[in-house]
């Protein structure tokens, strides 16, 4: 798949929207096998097996997740997304987190995904430590 602006945007929109369905296979389907996922306040995760494990851990503690796009800018192979992530924990607590994501794509697959957010804000709201 060529990395056009439209194709790159579609992959990212599909990934962000897939969280509501809670299917790990759908969530991970847009990633290259050697992709890197980096919640920038913590260490990056390299490779799809590690990414799947991290995403599964999130699915295990969140009853619901909605990643709401506020603005999106796309170029071939690069997508920047400003969003608000809404999570409902299994115990009913709500997490509302402003996030900026940077996605690099190659051949229609996400090769690098970096999220920038306030770690203390996330940990306070969720009770989790990343």
From TrEMBL:
UniProt keyword tRNA processing, yes or no: no
GO molecular function terms noted in the UniProt entry: hydrolase activity
Top-rank taxon, per record: Bacteria
Cross-referenced InterPro entries: LEH, NTF2-like_dom_sf
One family name in Pfam for this protein: LEH
Hydrolase among keywords: yes
Span of domain Limonene-1,2-epoxide hydrolase: 8-122
Keywords, alphabetical: Hydrolase
Protein name as annotated: Limonene-1,2-epoxide hydrolase
């Amino acid at each position: 798949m060529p990395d056009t602006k439209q194709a790159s945007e579609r992959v990212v929109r599909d990934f962000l929207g897939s969280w509501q369905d809670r299917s790990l296979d759908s969530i991970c389907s847009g990633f290259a096998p050697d992709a890197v996922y980096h919640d920038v306040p913590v260490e990056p995760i390299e490779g799809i097996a590690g990414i799947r494990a991290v995403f599964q851990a999130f699915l295990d503690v969140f009853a619901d997740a909605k990643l709401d796009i506020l603005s999106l800018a796309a170029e071939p192979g690069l997508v920047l997304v400003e969003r608000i992530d809404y999570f409902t924990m299994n115990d009913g607590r709500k997490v509302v987190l402003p996030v900026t994501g940077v996605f690099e794509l190659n051949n229609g697959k996400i090769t690098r995904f970096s999220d920038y957010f306030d770690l203390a804000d996330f940990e306070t709201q969720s009770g989790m430590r990343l």
